[in-house]
Amino acid sequence: MQHYQMYIGGRWVEGSTGERFETIDPYTGKPWATIARGTEADAALAVETAHAAMRTGPWATMSASARGALLRRLGDAITENAKFLGEVETRDNGKLIAEMGLQVRYLPQFCYYYAGLADKIEGTVPPVERAGYFNYTRNEPIGVAVAITPWNSPLMLGVNKVATALAAGCAVVVKPSEFTSASTLELARLVEKVGFPPGVFNVVCGYGQDVGAALVRHPKTAKVSFTGSEHGGRTVYEAAARGFKSVTLELGGKSPNIVFDDANLDDAVKGAVSGIFAASGQTCIAGSRLLLHETIHDQFVERLLAYAKTARIGNPMLEDTQVGPVTTPPQYKKILDYIEVAKSEGAELVLGGGASDVGEWFVQPTIFTNVDNRMRIAQEEVFGPVLSVIKFRDQEEAIAIANDTMYGLAAGVWTQNIRRMFTMANAIEAGTVWVNTYRAASYTTPFGGYKNSGLGYESGVNAIRQYLKTKSVWINFDADVPNPFVMRLT
């Protein structure tokens, strides 16, 4: 049994009440670690400590190039510990070691990318029309940044947020999910090891209603980056608005994966499987609505079923496992409930449809056909390995169905027609559109959602601007002092 403390102000500490909570291995259903449970007081301490680190001490005077050097060292440390970090993540959230290992080995790229951007944050010299005046702008760190991460990919999403904020010069407080706190605390060990000043990086663990809410509403929190459910995002947004805080929200999705009759069907079948059954469907970009052109519907479903039935379900720590468990008991129950909802709505179950007995909290890869886009199973985010197959007649209907949802995070299009590729990419209301692929990502490209899928963007150059504020500076070098009762415009 592992026992983790929180990391605040460069120190490993218990919560103010001394309470702890267990973290469960989703494969075995048994606890493997205990985590110090934070409180509102701990959250306040972390924000105050981060705020002080930005005002006094080494971080306050550190050059942008030196911040970048620290981020590069963090990237190197993650590389050196990638195998261990991947194992901790898999043990904590049940996702495949094959995927977690790949994700962790990719994380240093976020550090290196934003390390390179740290000293490229430049101001401007606008050409003002006023004689005798000089104006320049400077971009400054926005302030204390709170990063609230989900249980499905805490390290990938956490490092992305943290690297961006640190490159901008902010101090950070991370609140990981109460279901998956361990890997973020292991990251804190590396942050400490490579020499970030105390208070610059903090981790407070606990429950949303206690720690998360306190972090968001604290008056010295300037920026909140949240990844999670639509409900959680709305709660964060409303609380942050009361303090006029900057917010980035990456929320849910009900992404369409659209296959036209001219597509390479073998590739599209793999894309459909990757879109929904990878990570056991526990990803915001899951291609949970498979839209098939009516002329290929039957043969595609036949191929899809044959391929999906070969999926190896089991221990996520084994490299050849393809489908692992659901991370949490509430999510496990929610998925099974949605399967029953789909049956009651009249969708036709053609694969799976229940729990799997290979371990704790496993749901069989499940496919429904004859789904109408108005059904709950097609409109609401299940966040599990449940696929809704919807038939369409032509391109116009495919666009209409794709956009007929409150979400707009991602979409896939499978076609060999160049004109259609661009037409569909332009017409679909989603922050990311993949053509003849699915789930591709890079630290260099922006990622965000339309509609109820969120606000703002992670990754890419634009992301760092969301951790900056712009100051305009005016200097008068004219000897003439204008009339003080009249605003000078010329």
From TrEMBL:
<dbReference type="InterPro" id="IPR029510">
    <property type="entry name" value="Ald_DH_CS_GLU"/>
</dbReference>
<dbReference type="InterPro" id="IPR016162">
    <property type="entry name" value="Ald_DH_N"/>
</dbReference>
<dbReference type="InterPro" id="IPR016161">
    <property type="entry name" value="Ald_DH/histidinol_DH"/>
</dbReference>
<dbReference type="InterPro" id="IPR016163">
    <property type="entry name" value="Ald_DH_C"/>
</dbReference>
<comment type="similarity">
    <text>Belongs to the aldehyde dehydrogenase family.</text>
</comment>
<protein>
    <submittedName>
        <fullName>Aldehyde dehydrogenase (NAD+)</fullName>
    </submittedName>
</protein>
<feature type="active site">
    <location>
        <position position="250"/>
    </location>
</feature>
<dbReference type="InterPro" id="IPR016160">
    <property type="entry name" value="Ald_DH_CS_CYS"/>
</dbReference>
<keyword id="KW-0560">Oxidoreductase</keyword>
<dbReference type="GO" id="GO:0016620">
    <property type="term" value="F:oxidoreductase activity, acting on the aldehyde or oxo group of donors, NAD or NADP as acceptor"/>
</dbReference>
<dbReference type="InterPro" id="IPR015590">
    <property type="entry name" value="Aldehyde_DH_dom"/>
</dbReference>
<dbReference type="Pfam" id="PF00171">
    <property type="entry name" value="Aldedh"/>
</dbReference>
<feature type="domain" description="Aldehyde dehydrogenase">
    <location>
        <begin position="12"/>
        <end position="473"/>
    </location>
</feature>
<keyword id="KW-0558">Oxidation</keyword>
